[in-house]
Design goal:
Blueprint: H1 2-18, H2 22-33, H3 38-45, H4 51-91, H5 98-103, H6 113-127, E1 131-132, E2 138-140, H7 141-144, E3 170-172, H8 177-186, E4 191-200, E5 212-222, H9 227-242, E6 248-252, E7 258-267, E8 284-293, H10 295-300, E9 309-316, H11 317-325, H12 338-341
Parallel strand pairs: 1-4
Antiparallel strand pairs: 2-3, 4-5, 5-9, 6-7, 7-8, 8-9
Helix pairs in contact: 1-4, 2-4, 6-11
The protein binds phenylalanine (PHE).
Phenylalanine (PHE) is lined by residues 175, 177, 255, 258, 261, 289-291, 312-314.
Pfam families: Phe_tRNA-synt_N, tRNA-synt_2d
Subcellular location: Cytoplasm
Enzyme class: ligase
Length: 347
């Protein structure tokens, strides 16, 4: 009897090692330890055995039964792990964008045209001794308006449709001129810096207007700064950027924070001055509003106006990018369309 049990165990082990699937395993379980299984029939045959036999064989049978159940449980766990591995092998996904990009014939990881142009301009200004400053998108009234000589109820606030926060004290900056104020607060003259970044206005969107766009503010403060200095830096910037002769015009422009103020326009490069949707059919594009910093602004920034003066400008980065790459609609810039941004990879 005991020998028979040993044989049964080794027979089971051989059968178990050949099992691959769960259904096969459940059949094997029934065959050995099920109600009508091999182990049960041995136990049943004990009814004719002596007490002594019953004791030893019974105990051994139970041990074997437990060993079989344990081996089956272990095999179930093994099969389940193999099933998961097989699924992972079959259903894996590349969650990097590579596949989508490859399928669409696109190149990966290009820089956005605004980034490219912004960096190029930063390099030009760094080479001329300017510092690069940053500022927050969420601003207070003081930095966006008051310190820039735009008091409450001043009509110039209407020139810039503002996104206000519920508290009516904070807003999304409408221009990068906020960086002028922050720069004056943190620097002692003489100094010169540029501050690029996103600005926000509640505008109706069309080919030349977006609610989110980019400016690059510039400011220079020192002794005896003149309009000639301002014009020199503006011309230098444009000739470096366009690397060719472009037609520019300077006309008076009103901004409460500069006096005198100018608008520097360039001839529209999309239509070569003929008139199109980008230049609103006038043939010229407003690119560089600028002027000599108003003494009130310098005072608000803590600058001694008996000793120092300065100039400031606010370059419209999106328009510059559009002229540079012949983009005929500003809405492409924030479209997020890879077919658009991919074109600028190889700069
Ligand atoms: N902040 C002005 C605007 O966004 C532009 C500007 C900057 C004008 C600096 C003059 C000097 O409209």
């Amino acid at each position: 009897m005991l020998e028979k049990l040993d044989d049964l165990m080794s027979e089971f082990q051989t059968a178990l090692s050949a099992v691959i699937t769960k259904p096969e395993l459940f059949d094997l379980k029934a065959e050995y330890v099920g109600k009508k299984g091999k182990v049960s029939s041995i136990l049943k045959s004990l009814k004719d055995a002596t007490n002594e036999e019953r004791k030893t064989v019974g105990a051994k049978t139970n041990t074997i039964k437990e060993a079989i159940l344990k081996a089956i449980d272990e095999k179930v766990a093994l099969i389940e792990i193999e099933e998961i591995n097989a699924k992972l092998e079959k259903n894996w996904q590349d969650i990097t964008l590579n596949d989508i990009i490859k399928e669409n014939g696109l190149n990966a990881a290009g820089y956005h045209p605004v980034t490219l142009v912004q960096r190029e301009i930063e390099d030009i200004f760094i080479s001329m001794g300017f510092e690069i400053l940053d500022g927050p998108h969420i601003e207070d009234e003081f930095h966006n308006f008051e310190a820039l000589n735009i008091p409450k109820n001043h009509p110039a606030r209407d020139m810039q449709d503002t996104f206000w926060f519920k508290d009516m004290e904070h807003l999304l900056r409408t221009h990068t001129s906020t960086i002028q104020v922050r720069g004056m607060e943190s620097h002692k003259p003489p100094f010169k810096f540029v501050g690029p970044g996103k600005v926000f206005r509640c505008e109706t969107m069309d080919a030349s207007h977006e609610m989110v766009f980019h400016q690059l503010e510039g400011m220079m403060v020192g002794e005896n700064i003149s309009t000639a200095n301002l014009i020199f830096f503006m011309k230098k910037l444009l000739s470096e950027i366009f690397k060719s002769d472009i037609n520019v015009r300077l006309r008076p422009g009103f901004f409460p924070f500069v006096e005198p103020g100018f608008e520097l326009d360039i001839e529209c490069l999309i239509c070569k001055g003929k008139g199109c949707s980008v230049c609103k059919q006038v043939g010229w594009v407003e690119l560089l509003p600028c002027g000599m910093t108003h003494p009130k602004v310098l005072e608000a920034g803590g600058i001694d106006t008996t000793k120092y003066n300065g100039f400031a400008f606010g370059l419209g980065l999106d328009r510059l990018v559009m002229m540079r790459y012949m983009i005929d609609d500003i809405r492409h810039i924030h479209s997020g369309d890879l077919r658009f941004s991919e074109q600028f990879k190889e700069y």
